[in-house]
C-alpha cells in the first residue's frame, strides 16, 4: 500500500442516504436537460447558455462552497457524485465545474477575506466563471519551468507572458495566473520564485486568443491567453510570494470523471462487440462502482 494507508481497509469512501438522494437529483436533471441535446453539443462544440443557467438555478455551481460565501455547502463526495453523473452523458460539461473549482480552491486556501467576498459568491451563484492559468507553450507539468514574468514597479505588478491550453478561458470572468516574480536561487530550488495573481477579463493588457480544436471534451474550449504589460495592484497577488509552485497541485485533486465515462460507454460497446458471457461479466465487474480491488485470481 501507499502511505498513509497500511491496508485497503484504511481507505474507504462511505456514501450516506443524502449522497444518494443528491445523485438521483443530479441524474434526473442531466437526463432531462442535457441528454436530449448531448449529440448536438458534441457536434457543435458549444454548450447552450440556458443549460448553464439551469445548472445555476439548481445550485450545482455552489456545491462544496461554504454557505458563508453564497454556496450550497456539501462535501467533496457530493462534488465527485455531481461530476460522475454529468460525465455519464456529457463529459465536457463537467469541465465548467472543474475549472471553477481550480480557480476557487487557491483563493479559499490562501486568499484574503476581501478576495473571498469578491470572487467566490458570483461563481457559487453561477453568475461568473473562473479559470486556472498555469500551462504555457513551453511547459505544463513542469510548473517550475514557466516563463511568464511579473515585475514589481512601484506599488503595482507588471506581468508579461503567454498561457496555453487553458480550459473555459473563453467564458471565464476571472483567472488565477501563475507568474515568476524572481529567479530561483539554484536548480534544486526551481519551485521558488512563483506567485499567483488574480486577473479579470477585459482588463488592459490581457487577452484571450485562439482556442484549440480538441478530439474530446466537446462543449468546453481550451484557449491561449496573452498578458502584455498587464498591471495590477500588489493586493492581487497571494500564496506567499515566491511559493506559488507548491500551490497549483492543491486544487488539482481531480474529481475522477474517467470511471463514469467508461461506465457510460460500456453498454454502447456491448451492442457492437461480440463477447461471450464470461468476458462480459468480468468486464462489467471491473467497471462497477462497487467492484473490489483487482485480483489476478478473478481472471483465472
Summarize the structure in words.
With 300 residues, the chain is of the alpha+beta class. It folds into two domains: 121 residues, Butyryl-Coa Dehydrogenase, subunit A, domain 1, CATH 1.10.540.10; 117 residues, Butyryl-CoA Dehydrogenase, subunit A, domain 2 (Beta Barrel). The protein contains eight helices and eight strands, in the order ααααααββββββββαα. Strands 1-4-5-8 form a four-stranded mixed beta sheet, covered by helices on one side. The chain has a four-stranded antiparallel beta sheet with strand order 2-3-7-6, covered by helices on one side. Helix 1 runs parallel beside helix 4, helix 4 runs antiparallel to helix 5 and helix 5 runs antiparallel to helix 6. The longest helix is centred in the middle third of the chain and has 20 residues. The C terminus is likely disordered.
